[in-house]
Amino acid sequence: xxxxxxxxxxxxxxxxxxxxxxxxxxxxxxxxxxxxxxxxxxxxxxxxxxxxxxxxxxxxxxxxxxxxxxxxxxxxxxxxxxxxxxxxxxxxxxxxxxxxxxxxxxxxxxxxxxxxxxxxxxxxxxxxxxxxxxxxxxxxxxxxxxxxxxxxxxxxxxxxxxxxxxxxxxxxxxxxxxxxxxxxxxxxxxxxxxxxxxxxxxxxxxxxxxxxxxxxxxxxxxxxxxxxxxxxxxxxxxxxxxxxxxxxxxxxxxxxxxxxxxxxxxxxxxxxxxxxxxxxxxxxxxxxxxxxxxxxxxxxxxxxxxxxxxxxxxxxxxxxxxxxxxxxxxxxxxxxxxxxxxxxxxxxxxxxxxxxxxxxxxxxxxxxxxxxxxxxxxxxxxxxxxxxxxxxxxxxxxxxxxxxxxxxxxxxxxxxxxxxxxxxxxxxxxxxxxxxxxxxxxxxxxxxxxxxxxxxxxxxxxxxxxxxxxxxxxxxxxxxxxxxxxxxxxxxxxxxxxxxxxxxxxxxxxxxxxxxxxxxxxxxxxxxxxxxxxxxxxxxxxxxxxxxxxxxxxxxxxxxxxxxxxxxxxxxxxxxxxxxxxxxxxxxxxxxxxxxxxxxxxxxxxxxxxxxxxxxxxxxxxxxxxxxxxxxxxxxxxxxxxxxxxxxxxxxxxxxxxxxxxxxxxxxxxxxxxxxxxxxxxxxxxxxxxxxxxxxxxxxxxxxxxxxxxxxxxxxxxxxxxxxxxxxxxxxxxxxxxxxxxxxxxxxxxxxxxxxxxxxxxxxxxxxxxxxxxxxxxxxxxxxxxxxxxxxxxxxxxxx
Length: 800
Ligand SMILES: Nc1ncnc2c1ncn2[C@@H]1O[C@H](COP(=O)(O)OP(=O)(O)OP(=O)(O)O)[C@@H](O)[C@H]1O
Hints:
FtsK_4TM; elongated; 5 domains; binds adenosine-5'-triphosphate; alpha/beta; 9-stranded mixed β-sheet; 4-stranded antiparallel β-sheet; ATP binding; Threonyl-tRNA Synthetase, Chain A, domain 2
């Protein structure tokens, strides 16, 4: 049933889309107005023809005589179309045709749903036929009411069905029309009769009483309302006599009202008031239902309905991907070494089992009874030595399995291609808000998680260990699964090179601040503005949710799709927003609290309204990943890091320092730690995917975030000399000597805070000592030597 409904909705959408695609907006307006007036002209002609047809009969068909005037209000046009449609056509029912054409004009003009228009046409034409045949039934020759067609059709019917058969058929058709179109059912008819009966009784009640009784009636109404009802409920209607006294009559009427109401206990005498309330409720309920019936559910993807998701063949199939090649000798050798090493330390093994993954093999051992687990754990380095392999990790015990795991890297690690994870049924069938195909587990299962549930992700790893590839894998997963209307990315890339490829999909998937050229943010100041703007978006979304009485974005969007929220009240379909920050350490170093505060706010509050953060950093030190950030990022991915301390910072435990790099990673979402091999997606593949998407029809602009007007700390080029910092000259000298225009250098050398150093840099830029901001790189120093600097500053004074 539900399926059928969605199918019809889809079909409906298709037809209406086809219609509006065929005509441009202007064409629709012009054609709409033409049809409107043409339909009106027809109707005027037909009405006038009905009055003047006899007088104009001789003028029919004479078009070449310009002098000739007919009595029709639309002159020769009216006479001729009247003759054609009314006389020769459908008679009086031709007016319906004029009405339908006028209506089509109105629909086209206002670009309303074409679906209901088709319905009007279908039923209108049937009605026209029926009416003309109906009139044909009463006319003895061709008449003005039935038209020739109506008369002839009626004649034809009677030839085959006879008079009675024709009456039966016509009545049957009328019933079909009433039932389907007007939804008239026997219950409705009975209800209507009942209501009419009640109405008569009510009218009877409201008839002004004779003069001598007025006094009496006022007395009755001034009595408490409840009283007659209490009496009524005990009164038997049969006891009412023919000659009723006024009081008895009142009793009877009230009793009837109580009976006609389904509610057994009625507190008030005014029943019509209750009926009105019920009606009002129906209207509210119907409004959204009717909208859904007419237009179907709101479809956010409609604007880019032809959008095609990237195809699988854009991704490469890396060699050796066909299946895992298990090297039996290697397995045996490793097993023997593990057993020997352990037996050297007098640890007996009851059982050993190997699971071969893409990069590492997990040997699960069950030690003999009485062996302490910590003893095996302490042998990590010895086992690594005996296996002469890096990256041995001992998991003792494996949670939920009761065994001890030893992960040993394979000699020939296999690349997990993005293609294989995207093509996996697990990802394809994932019904998640933001599915991420991260890679494969040690047992070769595709690992898919929902970013919306994380709800924010922290990634860390030393340089060259696969962070950028990981970010690309995450973004690629979303591109393969989510329509541009459903998700938007805000990309921050201080390195300027990692995410540039995504520029191609700016108008499909990216979000940016108004009045900015590039959607991918590389400038620290812009990052601060964007983060604050996202906080504003978050607040605005919370207001919308509150207004709609929804707890999260999912409920809200469902309500919006069901057309229960009015766009005129500011409601809109809310896409998920994924904020990706590469090189977070760099940001924190340059902007500190200014970045940390909005990020912490977003991380704490944004989960319910569909804003999710992915933060990647090379340096997972505590001053970068502060306590407040860590607390709000329960999901973490660690690629290989260089020290145990770094591993602790990111994972709250060791392990990341024992990984083997090249996409080998640990994923945790609070408790369990899962070792994964990150899916590999190369730059050319990302380029192909973004090219594929970018070449399709896009939105007019990137998704715009709210405008944020921050305190302009950027390049304020007209800073007057008096306003310069006391340390201005000293700062200039430091930069000229070092030939490096960086704020952090000033911070260190002059022992300043970030803000003051930033202000100094701005002043130095205004004075022409350093060049403009260049992202993560230090600014260029424009003055080569100290002498040149002195000259420059002295010249300034001379000018003053
Ligand atoms: N999942 C993977 N599978 C196979 N090889 C990988 C994988 N991830 C990364 N590599 C290899 O490691 C190299 C470096 O990866 P990547 O550029 O992602 O490092 P990174 O951590 O981003 O470094 P940086 O922080 O300096 O940008 C890649 O060029 C690739 O050869």
